[in-house]
Amino acid sequence: MSSAVRSPQSISRCPVKRLDPLIRRLSLKLTPPSLEDNRSPEARLRAAVAQLLGEVPELPLPILQSLPPVLNRDWCPVVDCLFDGRWHVVAIHGESPPPPLGLAIDLGSTTVVFYLVDLSSGEVVHQRSALNPQVKYGEDILTRLHLASKKEGLERIHHLTIEFLNREILSLAEGVGYRPQDISILALAGNTTMTHFFLNLDPSMIFREPYVPLANRFDFFPAKDLALELSPLAKVYVFPNAGSYFGGDLIAGILASGMHRHPGLNFLVDVGTNAEVVLGNQDFLVACAGAAGPALEGGILTCGMRARKGAIERVRIDPESLQVNYKVIGDVPPEGLCGSGIIDLLAQMFLAGLVDQRGRLMIEKDPSRMVEIDGQRAYVVVFPEETSHGQPIYITEADIKNLIRSKGAMYTILTVVCRSVGVSFEDIENFYVAGAFGNYIDPEAAVIIGMLPDIPLSRFQPLGNAAGQGAICLLLNRQALGEIDEILKKLTYLEMNVRGEFMQLLTGALFIPHTDPNLFPSVKAKLGSRG
User: Fold this and answer.
1) Domain RACo linker region spans what residues (predicted)?
2) Per residue in 413-429, pLDDT tens?
3) What is the pLDDT of residues 378-408, one digit of tens each?
4) What's 262-294+403-526's CATH class?
5) Identical fold at 23-93 and 262-294+403-526?
6) pTM for this one?
7) What backbone phi and psi angles, to 5 degrees, belong to 372?
8) Taking burial as the number of CB atoms within 10 A of a residue's CB, which of 125, 182, 209, 241 is the most buried?
9) Domain ranges within the chain, ordered by starting residue
């Protein structure tokens, strides 16, 4: 299933002060050879490009072969030059060519997002998202990794991925009147496993000792090497990984946030299958990952679901009447609860006294909604007559315990990272929350349940699809290639599993919001005002 958004949009978050894209379009005016000036057309083309770009470009054989018909017309060719560390002419046009187009892809393990970018204007002219077809081989990464550890399994996943990408790129381009062959550059960001699947690289060492990927850094390469159906001379850039558990999607997210160029301290949090966290500034970057994601995404709860049409994304409970109000993505009858809705729900239940600090349901508070389902205590959020499937939407005590464990792990990861560099939450200037989770989450609700630190809400900044935005940033600013190198040099990975303090601190975070109420003064004040 795919979805598309057709309206052009600017990606304002990307720190691109002026366009300096990976592809430059040049309108040239050449003079034909003569007895007085007997330089070849090839030499004239190189000289004209060098005059504008300050560097003599490479001219691939297909460009030389296409010169005669273009030059015979008027000796005023329009050329596209691609920068991959040096300039290459990758297309030569006659009259009325389409704009120079780039493609940014966030290759997620569940969802893949595509952005078609006009590199002359900096606009995203079309975008779409689709379910990653790899999920048929396993919802979780580990199942796919086991399959891909055998050559035939890797080939199945790789070919499935390439066929899917070509199909989606065709729909993306045709949706706004272009062809895939009009695209000359692709920037792709994904986690370490996804990039190995995409590149047809053996991923078996990612999940076996010594847990080292086959490759972390990748040179630009021709799109045709992977049978990607783009321009004949199109090239591909894959964001580098920083290890098995810190992939190019996070490097792209750091690039999009600009935190690596900021003097103040910033946090970047991306909640997916895992919670991935980066703390730093222009001097250093500390990163870590931990298993805090599934419950926060709604993936492992009884009535949980992904953030899509039919998912409850907002919940409000009147503390006096206990009336439940909710908002559904797509304004349709609800099907389940996505991550942001679950966080809202738990926060509202806690403030209304429907659940205690340990996550136990207060049955006597609202007997009309407290039920037993399959031997478990549960709170009914939506009654059967209001849902799309005729079944109640509810949350069980076991669900709440799972959510508390996930939110507690999230808060503890943040605490450990801060302590590792000797700072406190009060020192953080910006707290970027990335991904679909970041788009929908209400930071206030996340603070109430003790998932995010109790800092001024104005410091929380939703970053949206950070990986996709980072890929767009690169397409629009070739200087970002150097920034990516700097990010990798500054980055230190913190292994959470070997830090004994994590388990010690986690114990205190397994309550709502925490065993130490002084860590959450705003929540303490809210509870006090409600008696």
Assistant:
1) 18-73
2) 999 999 999 999 999 99
3) 999 999 999 999 999 999 999 999 999 989 9
4) alpha beta
5) no
6) 0.89
7) -115, 125
8) 241
9) 2-10+99-248, 23-93, 262-294+403-526, 305-394
